[in-house]
């Protein structure tokens, strides 16, 4: 398994969504996710934000070098909100679930420019301008033995935001996201 610029640690995680945003602050990101930036303050590690379906979904949200990081452990709310989150900003989002379903999205000012599956694809296949990230993809070994670490390196190349394990393991501002709508069968 290649260690793409120190990101090999991510290969051991089962389910997450890491979203780097440049151009908005944490309070605005929380509002765009449907949360309350003025709500009860709390600090949690990434492990403490693990979402069990019957409880609230927590996300770490905070400023990092280069921008803002939203880290969801077993969540996907930022992935569903990339257009809203990227309005007036630029954003790279990488999602992986427990079944190794993966999705990478590059969005700028409310528009999804490129998206792909880092496990199955080595280049963006959809979005308004999927080739706009071709240069950033150069040299990254996506696929079975490097999808996750390559995707995090791509987040960094596109936004300047580095996802650090030490940041995730340190208690950060954590926000409870609103409950998902009830599903009726």
How are the secondary structure elements laid out?
Blueprint: E1 16-22, H1 26-32, E2 43-44, E3 57-64, E4 67-73, H2 77-80, H3 82-85, E5 90-96, E6 102-108, E7 111-116, H4 134-137, H5 147-159, H6 165-169, E8 172-177
Antiparallel strand pairs: 1-4, 1-5, 2-8, 3-4, 3-8, 5-6, 6-7
Describe this structure in words.
Helix content is 20%, strand content 27%. It starts with 15 loop residues before the first strand and ends in an 8-residue tail after the last strand. Strands 2-8-3-4-1-5-6-7 form an eight-stranded antiparallel sheet, with helices on both faces. It has one domain. The model has no long low-confidence stretch (mean pLDDT 91). Strand 6 and strand 7 form a beta hairpin. The protein is globular. It is built from six helices and eight strands; from the N terminus they run βαβββααβββαααβ. With 185 residues, the protein is of the alpha+beta class.
Shape: globular
Overall helicity: 10-25%
Mean pLDDT across residues: 91
Number of helices: 6
What is the N-to-C order of secondary-structure elements (H for helix, E for strand)?
A: EHEEEHHEEEHHHE
Strand content: 25-35%
Helix/strand-derived class? alpha+beta
Biggest beta sheet summary: 8 strands, antiparallel
Rg, Cα atoms, Å: 15 Å
Number of beta-strand segments: 8
């Amino acid at each position: 398994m290649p260690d793409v610029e120190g990101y090999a640690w991510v290969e051991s995680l089962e389910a997450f969504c890491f979203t780097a945003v440049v151009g908005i602050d944490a309070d605005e990101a929380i509002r765009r996710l449907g949360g309350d930036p003025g709500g009860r303050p709390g600090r949690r590690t990434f492990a403490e934000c693990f979402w069990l379906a019957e409880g609230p979904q927590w996300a770490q949200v905070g400023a990092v070098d280069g921008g803002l990081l939203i880290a969801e452990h077993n969540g996907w709310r930022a992935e569903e909100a990339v257009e809203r989150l990227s309005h007036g900003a630029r954003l790279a989002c990488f999602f992986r679930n427990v079944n190794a379903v993966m999705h990478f999205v590059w969005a700028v000012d409310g528009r999804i420019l490129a998206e792909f599956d880092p496990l199955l694809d080595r280049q963006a296949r959809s979005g308004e301008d999927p080739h706009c990230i071709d240069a950033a993809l150069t040299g990254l070994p996506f696929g079975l033995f490097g999808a996750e670490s390559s995707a995090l390196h791509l987040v960094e190349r596109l936004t300047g935001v580095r996802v650090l394990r030490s940041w995730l393991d340190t208690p950060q501002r954590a926000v409870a996201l609103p409950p998902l709508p009830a599903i009726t069968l």
